[in-house]
Amino acid sequence: MAHDDLDSVAAQLYALTPAEFTAARNARAAAATGDLARGIKALRKPVVAAYAVDLLVQAGQLGEALELAAALREAQDDLDAAELTRLGKQRRALVAALARSAADLARDRGVAVSAAAAIEIEATIDAAVRDPRAAAAVLTGRLVRPLAATGIDPVDLDDAVGGTLPGVTAATAAPPPPRDDLARRRARREAEKALREAEHLASEAERRLARTEASLAKARERADHLTQRVAELQADLGRVQADAAVAESAVSDAERESAEALAAAQRARRGVDSARDAVEGDA
Known about the structure:
By secondary structure, this protein is mainly alpha-helical. It has helices at 3-13, 18-31, 34-41, 48-58, 63-77, 81-108, 115-130, 132-139, 179-282. The protein has a domain at 3-175. It is built from nine helices and no strands.
């Protein structure tokens, strides 16, 4: 039996509602022969939660969630707590939104989704986001039962998919990283943290240097201006001192001339007095 043939038939059958599944499966099995017929007959009817998730896959709405899953696993590998917290919140919001979308797709096709089924839908999508093996199973679009991730053990995929699930077995579960590898990752994280701190300190030092250089430039500019002003004032002082010396000399000359004029006036007054006395004596 060719697996591709069985998986192709299974994909077509799991696109039908659970109510339509059994009759369609039996009809396809009756039309086939040999191993293919037996394989089709062995396909199990999907439960409502699995059917809703299959619809979500067929609608192509799981791509963003699985990209987030890869980013989340990378953050876990790098032991980046801040990124883990951010991606964890984003994951929970996205899983809840996708679960609602899957339930709506099922209801649009006339399939009732109970509260319990809604919880199973969300758990299945969460498992696909957390576990790459579960993601591979979900992405077949041939899920027959819900999945659940415990966060400790690998997701149980036994009888979870109708048809085959190539390349996904218990043996493919990723082993825990070696202790030496964890030590290297921790060392790298510490080195990256030290680098970020050094870059921060260097950035602060550069900003401080820029501020001090700007202050120094302003101080030099002011000092140059004041030095020039001092020179100008000194030149003005020299001119004023020269003018003052000339004025002092003029004062000295004026005082001398004033003294000579006073002496001349006094002599003239004495001459007038003598002349008056003579006139009065003759009279």
